[in-house]
Amino acid sequence: MMIQTGFPPDVVNIVLGDGPECGYAIAVHAPIDKAACTSSGEVGKKIQEEATKSNLKCVTFELECGGERVDNKGYFIKATIFSDVKDDMQITRDEIFGPVMSVLKYDSYEEIIKRANDTTFGLGAGVITRD
């Protein structure tokens, strides 16, 4: 797939494996300059620490979320909307990977600004399309 988009061979390598063994090896391997992973927050912190010790490689994260699998195979989950979410719930305090939306009610613009500033995560988005 990557070659079809014009990337030369070996520019992007997708490695599947468990965090303790595979993730650690990638994090500490100095010739690797950039890594992206899907993990829990706890594992993500460990990967970041090891990457910092090796060569200060750039690491990006998508943190995983549970959900009902599509057709009970692979890692694709059905889109999920959580309503009546409160500020102290774990779902608002942890980053989520997947087609998930949390709906929080608000009363004022100031409340929204306070919530946006009361997070350890940045606001960002990405889009991957077929063409």
TrEMBL record:
Pfam families xrefs: Aldedh
GO molecular function ontology, one term from the record: oxidoreductase activity, acting on the aldehyde or oxo group of donors, NAD or NADP as acceptor
Domain Aldehyde dehydrogenase span(s) in chain numbering: 62-131
Protein name: Aldehyde dehydrogenase domain-containing protein
